[in-house]
Specification:
The longest helix is centred in the N-terminal third of the chain and has 39 residues. A hairpin with a 2-residue loop joins strand 2 and strand 3. Helix 1 runs antiparallel to helix 4, helix 2 packs antiparallel against helix 5 and helix 4 runs antiparallel to helix 5. A 4-stranded mixed sheet has the order 1-4-3-2. It has 2 domains: 212 residues, Alpha-lytic protease prodomain-like; 70 residues, Cation efflux protein, cytoplasmic domain (Alpha-Beta Plaits), CATH 3.30.70.1350. It is of the alpha+beta class. The protein contains 8 helices and 4 strands. It is elongated, with a radius of gyration of 27 Å.
């Protein structure tokens, strides 16, 4: 009566990618931490908020990449009696933590920028430009490493940090050039606020996606009512109820439903058609379907006993 479909091919592909993904994250982590300290010292010496913000951003990148690498390692652990789905959702949790750290960083940058607009400080533009150019090259190298790995929600969070940091490096370069040419120092905090606003949109979107997965929401690219109608339209199916679709982990969607059928004799065919439909039309491979047959209520005749 209970059918459970678990396609091994899709899962074996995911496990094949994850070791490479973990090694990519580790390489990106080492490269990021190696330069963030240098940039922080240079930003403090040059008096540039844009450069300091970029350095702090790189340190945050390092922590996010460390979380991503740890989550990728944890996700490779097999299921256990206590965690029957394994630990793949650790990547989603790490993505949420990374996104929240990003929002905290943005708040710090905006707070410091507002203060510096009112009280401009002397800035060494040549140092800012030189260090920011090197930082941009490092960020692009890290982004290239991450883009070659598996594209999970967690890796997207880490890539978001790095791309935001690259924008910070570009802003620092522009600020340094303007200061060298014109001597106008307010450009430094103004560009820092602009970069913060650009990153905020992507950070909020990623927080929304991570929370949606953790709350067992229906994936944004799937329509629950459409899936229900397609299953109910199968020959021999009377009604579909208790339909649930959720994300187990990045790239892995699960579905469960109760299907009322005319007769259990049709169930093997209905089950095969439902699996093919969900796989081909919606990319859902982890399927649990429960058949139900509505039995007609027996007609009870009340016979009066003879007197």
């Amino acid at each position: 009566m209970h059918a459970h479909e678990h396609h091994g091919a899709g899962h074996s592909h995911a496990h094949h990618d994850q070791p490479q993904h973990g090694g990519t994250l580790l390489a990106a982590l080492l490269l990021t931490f190696a330069f963030s300290g240098v940039e922080a010292l240079a930003g403090w010496w040059a008096g540039s908020l844009a450069l300091l913000a970029d350095a702090i951003h790189m340190l945050t990148d390092g922590s996010s990449l460390a979380l991503a690498a740890a989550a990728a390692w944890l996700a490779r652990r097999p299921p256990s009696l206590r965690h029957s789905y394994g630990f793949a959702r650790a990547e989603v949790l790490a993505a949420l933590i990374n996104s929240v750290l990003m929002l905290v960083l943005l708040g710090f940058i905006v707070h410091e920028a507002i203060g510096r607009i009112g009280t401009p400080r002397a800035i060494h533009g040549d140092t800012v430009v030189g260090v920011a150019v090197i930082g941009l090259m490092v960020n692009l190298a890290v982004a290239w490493l991450l883009s070659r790995g598996a594209q999970t929600l967690n890796s997207r969070a880490a890539l978001l940090h790095v791309l935001g940091d690259a924008l910070g490096s570009v802003a620092a370069i522009v600020a340094g050039l303007v200061i060298l040419i014109t001597g106008w120092t307010p450009i430094d905090p103004l560009l820092s606020m602009l970069v913060a606003a650009l990153i905020l949109v992507s950070a909020l979107r990623l927080v929304r996606e991570a929370v949606h997965v953790l709350m067992e929401g229906v994936p944004f690219d799937l329509q629950l009512d459409t899936i229900g109608r397609e299953l109910a339209a199968l020959d021999g199916v009377l009604r579909v109820h208790d339909l649930h679709v959720w994300t187990l982990a990045s790239g892995s969607v699960a579905l469960s439903a109760h299907m009322e059928v005319r007769t259990l004799d049709d169930w093997p065919r209905i089950l095969a058609e439902a699996r093919e439909l969900l796989d081909a039309h919606h990319g859902i491979h982890h399927v649990t379907l429960q058949p139900e047959v509505l039995m007609a209520q027996p007609l009870v005749q009340h016979v009066r006993a003879p007197s």
